[in-house]
Structures are given as C-alpha cells and as structure tokens.
Design brief:
Two copies of one chain form a homodimer. Chain A contains ten helices and twelve strands. The first copy, chain A, has 337 residues and is an alpha/beta fold. At the A-B interface, strand 9, helix 7 and helix 9 of A face strand 9, helix 7 and helix 9 of B.
C-alpha cells in the first residue's frame, strides 16, 4: 500500500527496565518509535501508566500529522512482563514489576486513552513478532524461549498466540529439567530457568569459583561476573566456563525435546540476552535434543541442520529481531484480532 | 433426531490385540458394534486389513437394512496404535504392530472400500472420544494420557485433535521425567513411559524383589507379577508396592506439571489399564503437581478438588469411557472433518 492513508497499529513494550512505543504498518514497516529511558521498576505504577499513555498519544498525533489525517489506527497492543489474565486484563503476577500484582493494567490504560487495548504477556508478543517478521516469517506455528534474567516462553499456534484457557500458557521457563535440581522461585526445583537464564549462568559461575576449580572466571571482579563475561571466557577456551554453557545447552535440549515430542511444532526460537551465547551452548543442545526426541531425530538431518529423513525439518534457531521482537509483536496484536 | 434416517459414522479401533468396528450416531449413541476376537499382532497385515474392510462393510449393510436405506453414512474414522503421518496416511512406526512400519494403511483400506477414511493415532482418538462423551464432555480442550503397555498421549485443542505439523504430536509418554532414569526404547532415558506404564510397574516390582526388600510381591509367581497384582498388594498395605505407585504418581506429576505450565489446558485425563490404580498413585501425583506447577496451584483448591483461588480449576481425572474411548473417538473423526 503506497499511499498517504497507511493503516498502522501501535505496539507498546512494557518491561521492568524499559518502556517503548512504536507505530508499525501492516507490512511490518516501522513508522515511528519512542524509547523512554525510564526505570519502570522503581516508579509508581500509575505514573508509569500515565507516561505510557502520553507516549501513545504523542505517537498517534505524530502519525496523524505525517499522514495528514488519513492513516487509520488499527489498534493498540501492549506486551507486558508478567502473567496476564486473558479474561480480565489483570496483571496477575510480575517478577519484573514488583507492586504491579493484580493491577488492572488494561482497564487503567483504556480509561485514560478512551479506547480498547490488547494486553499480552511479553514473551507471547515476542513469539508473535518473530513469526511475523523474524525467524518464523511465512510460517504459522512456533515456540519461543526468551532467555533473559528469567526464562519466558510463548507459543503461536495456527498464527495466533496460544494463551491457554486462562492466559497462563507458555511458562516454558518452568518446565522441569532435573527434578532434584536447584530450587526455583516458582516453588519447584530444577526448572529450565535455573539453567538457561542469565541469572543461572552467573550462579553457576559462582558455584564453579566456590568449588575452587582453576578457571579464568577467577580473574573477574564480582561486578564483572555476569553471563556475558562467562560466555567470553568459554569462547576463549576456559574449561569451567564451557562446562557451564554445556549445562545451559543440555537443559535447553531436555526442555525442547519435551516440547517437540508433545506439540510437534516446526520451529523453536531462542531469544533474550543468553541466546547471544548460542555458539557456546548449541552443540550440547542439539546432542541432547537428538537423543531425547525421536520426533526431532526423525525430522532432521544428522547434523541438525537441513534436509531431513522425512520431507520436513524441525528447526531450532536464534531469534532474528533481537530486543524489538516484542515491540513488533505487540503492534501485530490488533492486526490479528 | 428421532427418525428412521439417522446419520451415523463408523469408528474402527485397530490395536495390537483387538479390532473393533462400531456405528455411532451424531448424539454419541452406539448403533451397532463388532468386536473381532483376532490377534492382529500375529497375522499378515493384508489379511488384517481385508478383515477390517469386511467388518466395515458388514456394519454398513446392517445399518442400511435397519435404517431401511435412509441412514446417511458420514464417514469412516480409524484409530491405529502407532505414529501416523498426517499428510500421507502412512503408519510410520508401530511398536504394537510389528511389520506394519511405513505401511500405507489408509491407502490400502481406501482402495478396498472405494471410499475415503480418516486415519489417526489411537491415543488421539481416545482423547477425542473422552472430549465428546467422557470426562471432557462439554469442553473443547484436553490432554489425555493412556497408561497401557506403553504410555500414549493425545491433545485436543479447540475441539480438534492437535496433530502437530506432521502428525507426531502428543507423544506424552516420552516427556522427560528424570534425565538419567531408566533407558527408554525411544533412545532417551527417564521418559514418563519408564515409570507410568504397566511394563514399568512390573519392572519396578522386579527391581524391588531383586533388592531383597520384604514385600508381599515375593508371594507371587512370575506369571502373576503384573501391574494389577502390584496394585492389589499396594491396596493391601504392602510398603514396597506402595513405593512403586508413589513413583508412578510422582512421574505423572512432573510430566503433567510441564504440560500445565506449557499449554494451560483445563483438563488432563488418565486412561489405560494403569489408570485403574488411580487410588494408589493419585496422592503423590497431586503432591508433585502442586509443587511443580504454579499455574496448577493458582487454578485449583488446596486439595486439588474443586473451587480455585481463581474462577477456574485445572482438573486431572480418570477417563470415563474405559477401553471404548478410542472407538467413539474414531467415529467422531468424520463428524468433525
């Protein structure tokens, strides 16, 4: 559509440390965006919502002036870090937004803007973004893991976010990997999140140091010891750092194998900060996956790369949109509704 | 519809040890059925298919004579024990039907009958049957575990069997419960099937005996030592037999927790022979499930029974149709197509 009357949607990414608003047209072109440098976590929730609504209004005005009043706003989609009740729009629980539990985010925003919005979990919108414009382009189904401070997950089935019957689906970070593994905040132990999050990588590095193993990690100050530094050490050949990413890969392999055996989706996408360490954990991930999932083994080549024994190949790959997947996915929500 | 012109479908249940054919109307009423006392496993596959087609023809003739030529046949659905390629209708792999691997079951039957049939994995049709007329009546989504010689699984989402992108979805028996657990035929180790199948219960009983533990199981002859006998001993208070069903329950709890966290379905149904031991394994199943799944814990009462903290309750229960779920589900296939 090359005209002055482009239809567009507004996408909002509301995380613990960022608030971003963008206008995106139906072809996926970014028309304008605003990144608010705000520490959401440390502020009053009503203040944050007010700021979010101001930013949305400002983007809308900007759009209608640049489109000379001719562009149709398709709707507003919001991705938020936390568990969203799909019926009520309540944010049930959010580790990244303390003080927001049970907050009626959707209602509060709708009242201020005077229009309906679609609220969705951030990993779900990231999955939708990757399907639309990223690793899943052209497909209709995928499973996404966001490996960040925690591990989030999102499922898209037949082109739509799968929310489950009350919006709690896709909690892939709490799939069990090792029943008697490290305790998890969710009340279980040995969840994927305890192996494949940035927090877990840092914890495992601390455990390696505490064990007295000879490792380049010992050369880092406490402030330097994070998942990225452990990755650097692994890539420079440090055996202990490599062992840590082996565990990351094995845990992901066990969890993804379960997902492949259960849902038989064509694509599994890994995003979030830890996905940047792909080279360090991918070999053990694929080893484990081939061993644990006969469905995967039956639908892929021996090297996990390409042509399968069957016509089809089950793929596991990195996200392509980086940190913007959620922003695009949020904008996609009203287009699909 | 109370008329002489009832529409009906034919359902076929083709397992390793049984071949059953039924005519079922759209309200779920069984109009006629034939159970062929045949050992499918030990016979030539072409012979079995010929016999199946004869039985289907005989049921069709019976129906058209009793309905005086007025009943419309809606179609023929077949549930078969094994992995079905949904695109080609090939039976890819079937542990229960040795010699049937890569056999074009659908094509062979269609050629003989001169009409299309719908072929589907047996656990998938059992799930569909339970949704239609059993534990899931009135709902649209469920997850079913069939605890038999092996552990099968079936998913129904939005009223339809979820086959995945190439028909291999629902392999719930191969979800990982214990990464370093007993080796599984699928190539992995510690799969649910290694804990919750009749084969696994018998194996664990053998292990208990070999360990020299004091147990009533020692009073059984080798021929008597099966899952049912272990259940009897457990219900009579034998500590070792109880431990075995504790493990069954814990494994099911771990696996179902993953499913609840991932798919957030309202209902999980346990069928197959081992489900008859519900009283022996349910307590540890629910203990584990509450601990492992905050989604479950957040959508159920403390005793796992009824009114939840939220409006909804995630349910786990026994199948209601017993061995007939697959027969009804198979008949349902053409009604949904």
């Amino acid at each position: 559509m090359v005209s002055g009357k482009k239809s567009y949607a507004i996408g909002v990414d509301l995380g613990g440390t960022n608030l971003r608003v963008a206008a995106v047209d139906e072809s996926g072109e970014l028309l304008t965006r605003t990144d608010l440098p705000t520490d959401v976590r440390g502020r009053d929730r009503i203040e944050v919502v007010a700021e979010l609504c101001d930013a949305v209004r400002s983007v809308t005005e900007q759009m209608s002036s640049s489109l000379k009043g001719g562009g149709a706003l398709l709707g507003i989609g919001i991705g938020v870090a936390g568990l969203v009740d799909s019926e009520t729009g309540l944010l049930l629980e959010s580790p990244n937004l303390p003080g927001w539990n049970e907050f009626d985010v959707k209602g509060e925003i709708e009242q201020r803007l005077g229009t309906q919005v679609i609220l969705e979990n951030d990993a779900n919108v990231a999955a939708l973004g990757e399907l639309w414009l990223g690793a899943g382009r052209g497909g209709s189904d995928l499973c996404m893991y966001t490996l960040g401070t925690g591990v989030g997950g999102g499922l898209v089935l037949d082109g739509k976010v799968w929310r489950g019957w009350n919006g709690m689906a896709g909690e892939l970070g709490h799939c069990n990997v090792e029943p008697e593994g490290p305790p998890c905040n969710c009340g279980s132990s040995g969840c994927l999140e305890q192996y494949a999050s940035a927090t877990a990588v840092t914890r495992m590095a601390g455990e390696a140091l505490a064990s007295g193993a000879a490792t380049a990690l010992a050369g880092l100050t406490e402030g330097e010891l994070d998942a990225r530094a452990v990755y650097q050490c692994a890539m420079e050949g440090d055996a202990e750092a490599r062992k840590i990413f082996d565990r990351v890969g094995r845990a992901l392999g066990v969890a993804i194998a379960d997902m492949v055996n259960t849902m038989n989706l064509p694509l599994h996408v890994l995003g979030g900060g830890v996905a940047a360490s792909w080279e360090a954990f991918a070999p053990s991930l694929f080893d484990e996956l081939r061993r644990r999932s006969f469905v995967f083994a039956g639908t892929t080549a021996e090297d996990g790369s390409g042509v399968g024994a069957r016509r089809h190949t089950t793929r596991v790959c990195r996200a392509l949109l980086g940190g913007d997947g959620g922003l695009y996915g949020a904008a996609r929500l009203p287009m699909r509704a």
